[in-house]
Amino acid sequence: MAQISVTIAGRAFRMACEDGEEEHLTGLAATLDARIGDMRKAFGEIGDQRLTVMAAISLADERLDALARLARLEEDMARLRESARGATMLAEDSARQIAQSIDEAAARIEAAARALDGGDHTA
User: Is 98 a domain residue?
Assistant: First the structure.
């Protein structure tokens, strides 16, 4: 298990993470620190704890919005897949009907050719 130090709102925190996750955790801490900095600029010095909680709630809200958008996109994808399946089935059915029509037309053309040759005495 790796140990790293991150700085959030001017305070250093020692944290543990899985090996190889150090950069990811550092990035997350930097995101939170930036959000706290933005809120400090917007609201002034209202207390580190309050700014930290506000930043965390803000990030949680964005995460929930992103999850909701993702769920809607997944629903849209499912509908599109279903539409694509329906379109594929329709196209396959149309192809079968066209092939059948071509076979029937070919049989009629062959019968007409035999009749023109005078070789069709079976009728």
Answer: yes
